[in-house]
């Protein structure tokens, strides 16, 4: 990991804010969900991946991470056990994100409030990008459900395509736009190198987490994980598959660093700050994954061949 560890000084206050927000919308009324939040530490992840943002932005980032953990776990459970029941859940989210429809569930109410927070802090263009990327994340969960319930082997390419959506990282990037003192220019935002950096940063961040979650996902019968995709493709042991995934992560980070050096002279201070937001997710997922209780048993428990 070429990027040094950093954390946000407001992490403790934001952690308390996350707990209160989840309680307010009833998302931790279920003891299993409350335990999951303790084991995933969403405010810690927010602190590690957003070390330089102000407290207001950090609180929104932490709320969004917590919400996505709850939503993702619920969608995974429903999608595996009752795929048909997943459609109303995802449709509610799309209706909120696309049309501003009123919610009908506690998860929908939390998403509506999160969207309000984003709209209050972001410009209309930034908020529209947040809506768009958040809808892509929701659609990714549907693709994941199809992959999990389909008997045909899943190729590595299909796996990584779905993983880039279910990662849910890109919805955070408009918040890093909003964190800057000035807006990025259109030339900066839509620059081909900037678009490539967004793709690389998402993949590097989520694939890094996949290295640490592979044992957990294998036990649960998961399919959408980079290491498990290599294991299926190569017919090798999980440790060997993780080694192959590490090489892919390292190559992705190396390309990201090279492109950063290429485009930095052309960027405004706002553009540089936005790219630092991408760096934060690569760095943050690494340091968070190494210490979070969610993956702690993977380091000592044996995995299936």
Spell out the blueprint of helices and strands.
Layout lengths: L10 H14 L6 H10 L1 H8 L5 H27 L1 H17 L6 H16 L2 H26 L6 H11 L6 H6 L7 H4 L2 H28 L6 H9 L3 H26 L5 H23 L14
Helix pairs in contact: 1-3, 1-4, 3-4, 3-14, 4-5, 4-6, 4-7, 5-6, 5-7, 7-8, 8-12, 11-13, 11-14, 12-13
Please explain how this structure is put together.
- It holds the Pfam family Terpene_syn_C_2.
- InterPro entries: Amorph_synthase (IPR048138), Isoprenoid_synthase_dom_sf (IPR008949).
- This is Sesquiterpene cyclase.
- The chain has 305 residues and is mostly helical.
- Helices cover 74% and strands 0% of the residues.
- It has 14 helices and no strands.
- The protein has helices spanning 11-24, 31-40, 42-49, 55-81, 83-99, 106-121, 124-149, 156-166, 173-178, 186-189, 192-219, 226-234, 238-263, 269-291.
- It is globular.
- The relative contact order is 0.13.
**Assembly form of the protein:** single chain
Number of helices: 14
Mean pLDDT: 93
What is the terminal separation in angstroms?
A: 28 Å
Shape: globular
CATH topology: Farnesyl Diphosphate Synthase
CATH architecture: Orthogonal Bundle
* The CATH class: Mainly Alpha
Q: How many strands, which pairing sense, and closed or not: the largest β-sheet?
A: none
Which percent range describes the beta-strand content? under 5%
Unreliable spans are: 300-305
Helical/strand content category: mainly alpha
Give the % helix: over 70%
Radius of gyration: 19 Å
């Amino acid at each position: 990991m070429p990027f040094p560890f950093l954390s946000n000084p407001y992490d403790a206050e934001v952690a308390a804010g996350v707990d209160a927000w989840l309680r307010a919308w009833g998302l931790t009324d279920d003891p299993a969900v409350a335990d999951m939040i303790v084991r995933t530490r969403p405010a810690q992840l927010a602190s590690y991946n957003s070390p330089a943002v102000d407290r207001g932005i950090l609180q929104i980032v932490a709320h969004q991470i917590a919400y996505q953990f709850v939503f993702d776990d619920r969608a995974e459970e429903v999608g595996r056990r009752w795929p048909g029941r997943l459609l109303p859940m995802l449709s509610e989210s799309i209706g909120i994100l696309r049309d501003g429809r009123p919610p009908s569930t506690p998860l929908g109410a939390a998403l509506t409030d999160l969207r309000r927070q984003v709209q209050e802090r972001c410009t209309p263009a930034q908020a529209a990008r947040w809506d768009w990327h958040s809808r892509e994340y929701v659609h990714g969960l549907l693709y994941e459900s199809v992959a999990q319930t389909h008997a045909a082997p899943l190729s590595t390419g299909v796996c990584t395509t779905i993983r880039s959506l279910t990662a849910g990282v890109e919805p955070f990037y408009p918040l890093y736009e909003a964190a800057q003192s000035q807006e990025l220019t259109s030339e900066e935002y839509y620059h081909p190198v900037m678009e490539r950096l967004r793709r690389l940063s998402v993949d590097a961040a989520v694939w890094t987490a996949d290295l640490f979650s592979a044992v957990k996902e294998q036990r649960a019968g998961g399919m959408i994980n980079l290491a498990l995709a290599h294991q299926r493709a190569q017919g090798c042991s999980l440790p060997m598959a993780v080694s192959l995934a590490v090489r892919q992560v390292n190559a992705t980070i190396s390309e990201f660093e090279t492109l950063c050096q290429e485009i930095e002279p052309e960027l405004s201070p706002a553009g540089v700050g936005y790219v630092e937001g991408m760096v934060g997710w690569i760095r943050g997922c690494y340091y968070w994954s190494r210490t979070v209780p969610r993956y702690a048993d993977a380091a000592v428990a044996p995995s299936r061949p």
